[in-house]
């Protein structure tokens, strides 16, 4: 019996991941710990004995979903709360629904921040670096679209990197 | 329609991954491109339109499997073929069976090397570095065991990192 740190995320299309990584490789020290992603549930601790019960519940959540579209048009920042710059995922009921389901029932309910669907491209920069980076990116526009048909349960290794434990495909 | 580079691998337990990463972080330039893994099928190109057919076939292969044990007791090297040093996975019929199934039927059959189940911990070192590293590691003994109950289909991003596309659990 051991507690591992788990998280739940969506990996968008390779195209969107390649765009995100072109920025992450310069501005995000977390760059190679996990592929570009939309977090649905932040890191939470669960006993390895209990994770398969959570996985069953995630299976049910995924089974009730249908694939849905996401769109990305611009960059935004969580400043002044944190210096995180991100690709803003346009408001999306399906993402909000998934986030809510994953904080109810048998799931730990804590959530540090209100849910804002995003793909982080820069974080942990100094105030000045953040101003520079965000200043140069906030004028950018994108026309990125993807169909989401699955999410992933991951766990974190001792060195901070993440490994996928299981994929949950919608409608199965 | 786009060709992506796919691969198929097993991620062993967090314990084994942590051991592997303690070496990889020093000796493997591929360290953060993918978590520690046992490759079942080396990188192959498939059209994104065709991958879900392959995934269906992988589902069938996984459905017929039962969880099996793997053991790791020592370090070995592929030298002089390549300077890759690895955690040697003890000979295992289930791994061999999976490797064979993934090179038959609708799967590309090419395989650069004979199948030797392993977890790479050092690669792309100079001849001298390899001698030093392997010399210091070949006396080590391990007593690592794990139950394998799934494998993963991954694709490679432009920067060389890998993203999991789907997990296949045995007997489902």
Automatic annotation (TrEMBL), chains A, B:
<keyword id="KW-0436">Ligase</keyword>
<dbReference type="Pfam" id="PF13563">
    <property type="entry name" value="2_5_RNA_ligase2"/>
</dbReference>
<dbReference type="GO" id="GO:0016788">
    <property type="term" value="F:hydrolase activity, acting on ester bonds"/>
</dbReference>
<keyword id="KW-0378">Hydrolase</keyword>
<feature type="active site" description="Proton donor">
    <location>
        <position position="37"/>
    </location>
</feature>
<protein>
    <recommendedName>
        <fullName>Putative phosphoesterase SAMN05216498_3179</fullName>
        <ecNumber>3.1.-.-</ecNumber>
    </recommendedName>
</protein>
<dbReference type="InterPro" id="IPR009097">
    <property type="entry name" value="Cyclic_Pdiesterase"/>
</dbReference>
<feature type="active site" description="Proton acceptor">
    <location>
        <position position="118"/>
    </location>
</feature>
<dbReference type="GO" id="GO:0016874">
    <property type="term" value="F:ligase activity"/>
</dbReference>
<comment type="similarity">
    <text>Belongs to the 2H phosphoesterase superfamily. YjcG family.</text>
</comment>
<dbReference type="InterPro" id="IPR050580">
    <property type="entry name" value="2H_phosphoesterase_YjcG-like"/>
</dbReference>
<feature type="short sequence motif" description="HXTX 2">
    <location>
        <begin position="118"/>
        <end position="121"/>
    </location>
</feature>
<dbReference type="InterPro" id="IPR022932">
    <property type="entry name" value="YjcG"/>
</dbReference>
<feature type="short sequence motif" description="HXTX 1">
    <location>
        <begin position="37"/>
        <end position="40"/>
    </location>
</feature>
């Amino acid at each position: 019996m051991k507690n591992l740190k788990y998280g739940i995320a969506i990996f968008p299309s390779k195209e969107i991941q390649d765009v995100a990584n072109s920025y992450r490789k310069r501005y995000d020290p977390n760059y190679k710990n996990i592929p570009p992603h939309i977090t649905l549930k932040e890191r939470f601790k669960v006993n390895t004995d209990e994770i398969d019960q959570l996985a069953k519940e995630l299976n049910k959540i995924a089974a009730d979903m249908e694939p849905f579209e996401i769109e990305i048009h611009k960059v935004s920042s969580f400043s002044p709360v944190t210096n995180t710059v991100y690709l803003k995922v346009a408001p999306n009921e399906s993402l909000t629904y998934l986030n809510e389901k994953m904080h109810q029932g048998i799931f730990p309910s804590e959530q540090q921040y209100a849910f804002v669907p995003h793909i982080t491209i820069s974080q942990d920069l100094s105030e000045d670096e953040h101003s520079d980076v965000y200043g140069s990116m906030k004028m950018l526009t994108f026309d990125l679209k993807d169909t989401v048909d699955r999410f992933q349960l991951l766990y974190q290794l001792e060195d901070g990197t993440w490994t996928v434990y299981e994929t949950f495909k919608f409608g199965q």
